[in-house]
Magnesium transport protein CorA (Larkinella bovis), 1795 residues
Amino acid sequence: MARRRYKHSEKKVGASPGTLVYVGQEIDYKTTIRRIDYNEADYTIETVKKLALCTRPSEASPLVSWLDVDGIHEPQVVERIGQQYQLHPLLLEDVMNSQQKPKVEEYDGSYLFVTLKMLYFTKSGQELEHEHLSFVLGKNYLISFQEERKADLFQPILDRIQASAGKTRRNGSDYLLYALLDLVVDHYFVVLDSIGEKLEILENSIIEQVASQQTLTRLYTLKRELTLMRKLVWPVREIVNRILLEESDLIRPATIPFLRDLYDHVVQVLDSIDSYRELATGLLDVYLSTLSNRMNAVMKTLTIFSAIFMPLTFIVGVYGMNFDNMPELHTRNGYYVVLLIMVVLTVLMIIYFRRRKWF
Amino acid sequence: MARRRYKHSEKKVGASPGTLVYVGQEIDYKTTIRRIDYNEADYTIETVKKLALCTRPSEASPLVSWLDVDGIHEPQVVERIGQQYQLHPLLLEDVMNSQQKPKVEEYDGSYLFVTLKMLYFTKSGQELEHEHLSFVLGKNYLISFQEERKADLFQPILDRIQASAGKTRRNGSDYLLYALLDLVVDHYFVVLDSIGEKLEILENSIIEQVASQQTLTRLYTLKRELTLMRKLVWPVREIVNRILLEESDLIRPATIPFLRDLYDHVVQVLDSIDSYRELATGLLDVYLSTLSNRMNAVMKTLTIFSAIFMPLTFIVGVYGMNFDNMPELHTRNGYYVVLLIMVVLTVLMIIYFRRRKWF
Amino acid sequence: MARRRYKHSEKKVGASPGTLVYVGQEIDYKTTIRRIDYNEADYTIETVKKLALCTRPSEASPLVSWLDVDGIHEPQVVERIGQQYQLHPLLLEDVMNSQQKPKVEEYDGSYLFVTLKMLYFTKSGQELEHEHLSFVLGKNYLISFQEERKADLFQPILDRIQASAGKTRRNGSDYLLYALLDLVVDHYFVVLDSIGEKLEILENSIIEQVASQQTLTRLYTLKRELTLMRKLVWPVREIVNRILLEESDLIRPATIPFLRDLYDHVVQVLDSIDSYRELATGLLDVYLSTLSNRMNAVMKTLTIFSAIFMPLTFIVGVYGMNFDNMPELHTRNGYYVVLLIMVVLTVLMIIYFRRRKWF
Amino acid sequence: MARRRYKHSEKKVGASPGTLVYVGQEIDYKTTIRRIDYNEADYTIETVKKLALCTRPSEASPLVSWLDVDGIHEPQVVERIGQQYQLHPLLLEDVMNSQQKPKVEEYDGSYLFVTLKMLYFTKSGQELEHEHLSFVLGKNYLISFQEERKADLFQPILDRIQASAGKTRRNGSDYLLYALLDLVVDHYFVVLDSIGEKLEILENSIIEQVASQQTLTRLYTLKRELTLMRKLVWPVREIVNRILLEESDLIRPATIPFLRDLYDHVVQVLDSIDSYRELATGLLDVYLSTLSNRMNAVMKTLTIFSAIFMPLTFIVGVYGMNFDNMPELHTRNGYYVVLLIMVVLTVLMIIYFRRRKWF
Amino acid sequence: MARRRYKHSEKKVGASPGTLVYVGQEIDYKTTIRRIDYNEADYTIETVKKLALCTRPSEASPLVSWLDVDGIHEPQVVERIGQQYQLHPLLLEDVMNSQQKPKVEEYDGSYLFVTLKMLYFTKSGQELEHEHLSFVLGKNYLISFQEERKADLFQPILDRIQASAGKTRRNGSDYLLYALLDLVVDHYFVVLDSIGEKLEILENSIIEQVASQQTLTRLYTLKRELTLMRKLVWPVREIVNRILLEESDLIRPATIPFLRDLYDHVVQVLDSIDSYRELATGLLDVYLSTLSNRMNAVMKTLTIFSAIFMPLTFIVGVYGMNFDNMPELHTRNGYYVVLLIMVVLTVLMIIYFRRRKWF
């Protein structure tokens, strides 16, 4: 059961801060970059072939420019984009460090940096995976960085932009940021639903007493996943809250109610995580007491058998002795009397255990 | 044991925010809407047949207008009411989302939105159910939305309005909101009483040691219900507190003491929930140690039987051997001596176990 | 084991707020009211026969007027007093609701309302009971309401007033309130001492390993009582703190140090409650591990018996077989050799178990 | 195992506040009072024989005057000192109440009252005792009250005063207070070290699996002592913090860094207490699982014996039957065949249990 | 298993505060001191032979002066440096007290004192060790004190200074402090990774059910190390936060983003510690329930054997009795009938236990 743990690469110890190193899994394809420019009237979508074309739009540009960077493992790509958009080196380091905790930071009021995790279950549904996402929000542009190519992750937003001049097209880059964050939080609910279903299966097997050691291992894994999820979602609440409170110029007032709605959703995710954790703990208690109960039942069975057959075996042993002088052996009905005594004894034993409610 | 869980419908992932989708159980009847207009002098109650008649009363109207909407599953109905009362689309989304956490929100000081959960046990008394309620409070109107037709839910208030020109009739829409919230909180107490009774039954069966595995399952279910209840009532405390603190123009000063009283009640509900949770945890400990105690008793019984009969069986086995040269077999009283030895041994064993307080 | 639980009467659901209903145990005697007027120079104590005589003293009166109302189950009495002293209806509701949480409230700076619980053990010392007390403090008057006639509850204060022109007589109604609250808190210490003694008895029986299932039930009951006590005393801390912080005109500066002292005492009560709870939890752990230890001892006894006698019984069984051709049976010393072998085997077993420190 | 518990004497219930009653253990010797006057140039130490000589030094006095009162059980002594130094009656009550929680209080900026506990193990090292200490700090005087004569408690400070015109002599009464408090906190470390050593012994005996029921009782006692210690040291942190924050005129700026250092030490004590508590809890878990492990081992032994000898005993029983027609009995090698079968069966059993890793 | 505990040397009790005593392990080599002066243009590194040369650089000096003191056990060395740099005596005491909790303190805005712990595993990887580090930051100088010679601890920074006129050389002493703190925090990650690996090994052995008592001891040791680590890292978070908040003149604005980054890392360390602790607790639960499960399996085996063989042994015992009159013994097929009966009985038993899912 191999798991990807939070690993802070050793080779980085002592490296000069701001050195760009990709910390995470090795990936073998090239970064792909798409640029989407749109306003209410029109939109263009193109795949960027040359990094030199990733330029910051002029402040006067009436279009919202979305640069969608897919892949964060090539330092030179990230660095080049950073230069052309004039981003702080530590920000770029955070973009590439897939172990970076979710956070928000505003740089001189000129751009806002948000990084958080996308969560999903692997295809097999066995492992909870997370993917590092970063967003840079400027006046009329947004850059999104994602760790791995998940062709369909931002697709719903692209579809909406292409579909019609709807809310997304009518609003600015801040609304686009909101829409993308909302998408990420919606995926948290999908993960939660999946965990909820697994928990329900475990609950049923425990309450119907068909649980095994494996059930417990699964329960433990679920608790682990909930702990991880909590750790990754908790700061998202703080991120949205800070965007709401800081009244940055980059966030238009019209976007505020949407962000407040997003905040509610994140809180709901956290609430559900906590409920599930409590549930899992309660289930463990039920399971352990089930074990105790079963042990009790087993022990009672053993004791009843022993208490009935030990005296009987002793009695027949007595009349198996070879003493010359054992008058009972030579009586006519001795054998039948002994059989009768043993039947009576057994009946008494059974009555006794019934009285003590042992079966 | 099927249970309704918090489920955030998957199909919503990626949908444009503000899209009205009913998230909850499918229901097959039409929304019914009642409109109650009253002041100290008079009142009218009518069932609204045409949505066009659900209009916001003019600010100058001397009547309090209460629109009681029963059913939140038809988007076009909710949307139409929203348009005619000029409500924010996200508010309407919250009205229809039966998974929405309880909360309060004020929109530009012109209306106040409150949503919370009504709690009740199913007829069978087995399952704790919750129903999504929303209120929109304006200067001289109140809209109430409820998830399912519970004919008797708001009936006591209607009765009071019809009965006499009492406190409800003499006061404004804010007092009506208070009266409805008070009703909801009163139902929390009913649920709590029911949980308290169940807990007492479990307590008795555990302390009198007639508890079974089923007792434990029930205890677990109770803890779960208390956890759910806490999750749903906790934000209500915050709601009432914020209404008290924010000094909205929509809340008249005369209503404040009543709201403070309501606040006290909610805190009392939360206190009782916490007490019950602690009680349940304590009961679990008692139950588990009861199991250990019982196991001890069973094991002692087994050990006593074994310790008495194993040596006896061995002795009679010795004299069951077929060696040619076993002088004891041929003595006159050998048999009786062996019987005596066994009686003495048994008595010694019994004394030994009595000394160790095994029985 | 019947217990009085927090029960919010169902019939109240939907009743108009401010309706006076006595919520608590039914009591069958009439309310008795005493009026004590005093200042440094003089005092009068009289039992009030007519409710009309319960009037608020004029602001100019140089006397402190204490109205001691014994019994809160007759709505008309409480209502009449409320009218004559011009008290808020919700306050009167709190006076009569014996389930009301302890709290303090100031009404327009003209009077202060305090309600809290008196705690005591029933005569049999088995059950922790609580009694609902309320105080209304005015400029020069104090009304005290108590749930049941406990002739001796406020007697020490009456004695002090009668005894001499001491501190109580020299000070105002605020000092009287302090003195009554101090009395209540002193009773908390009495209850705590009683719980402490019970805990010590349980501790001894657990540590000396003579504990039974009943010990556990008692431990559980104690924990329950501590939980209840904590719930009822915790808000008292808040009450005293708020009186101290709010700098009401009703509290003279000279009374402040006394209230601060009272605050210290309440905190000390809460500290002791928490210590006792921790102690009780620790004892439970010790008890459970004692059970495990005992089980281990029982199992070892069983295993030693089995391990010694099973092989022996097998050996004698072998020579009890009836094969024609068993040469050992016909040797001269076969019997003695077998006996010797069995002795050696037993000694080896005993050495083995001693080595493993089983006894 | 008699223990001194927090006991609030019952006879005090209803007594007028400010009544001086010694609450604590009965002690049979007289209070002794020493007066030490010093400044950088000189010092005098004298035992005060007449209470009339315990006078407050004039504000103009250039000497620091330390009144060291040993014994707090004689109300007339404490009262007289209180009168001559003009101390508040409630302060005197706190001085005499050995159950008083640690606290600090400033009276009108003219003197500061600090009370806390000295902790030490009894000579036998078995019981954690605490002693009630109080300090009254004035402009140029300090009064120290201690519960029992511990000749050596304040001796180090006296020695320093006598030794040379060092820091203590050069500084004011506030530094003297600091020095005394520092002494008390240093003793906390001594107690902690002692607890640490005991814990290490328990840890070793548990990890090396030689723990008995007694080990558990000791662990429980240690946890109790840590709980008590935490309760008594926690408010000391608050005391030092409040002295630091309140910027009283009684504390000179030069003393502030020393108090901050003292604060660090108290925090370190509290940290260690918490670490030890966690350690103790962890040890309990290890111990309990050790018990389970041992039980498992015992049960396996029993089961192996039973599983091997029960079938064997059955087989020899079969050939011990007395049927006329049992052909095997009369074959030549029947006996040896049966012996062989039994050996094979035993070997198979052993292989089976080895495979399941039972031994 | 000897461990170094937090030990506050007894001999210090009663010593005058500010007395320099080295509290920690005895070390037998001499302090070595290096002085590194650098700016963007140049750098010099020299080993200081005479203490007189450790002088504070003049405020006007354009170079950053780093004094790297290796060894804190010689009071006269620390005292001399303290004099020459005009440091507060209590600061020097903290430098030498290896038990000092991590903290930050600013002295009159002229220098900043930071002390914290370096963490590492011993070579054998068995024990978590910590080393006491202190830093004094002045306008253009930094003094670093380390407890033991770890030649390679600060080497990476020295290398960077020597390598090129990079960020370290271009920035001031505050950046140097940041770089050193960053190095310490990087080592926390190395320790965390090591703990994570150990935990993974334990997890595997527990989930694959090959855990022994030793596994538990290791789990306990890990939890202990995590507790220690948390205690030592927690205040570091506070240190960095306070440096960020206090806006000292000693910290240049350009260094702020780097410190914020450092803060993020410390928080990430603390998060991981908490996750690991939860994991360890979860593992313990799994382990304990594994034990219960195994016990259940063992008991079932025993009970099945007993339930099958006890009745059989009884039956053969019956026909081993020596009664004269036992007709069955003399029938022709008696023996075979009994054998058949026993086979049937065994089959029934097996069916019964299979039904109850015992194997």
Q: What stands out?
A: Chain B touches chain D at residues 320 (CB under 8 Å). The first helix of chain B runs from residue 75 to 84. Chain B has two domains: 22-289, 296-355. DSSP finds nine helices and seven strands in chain B.
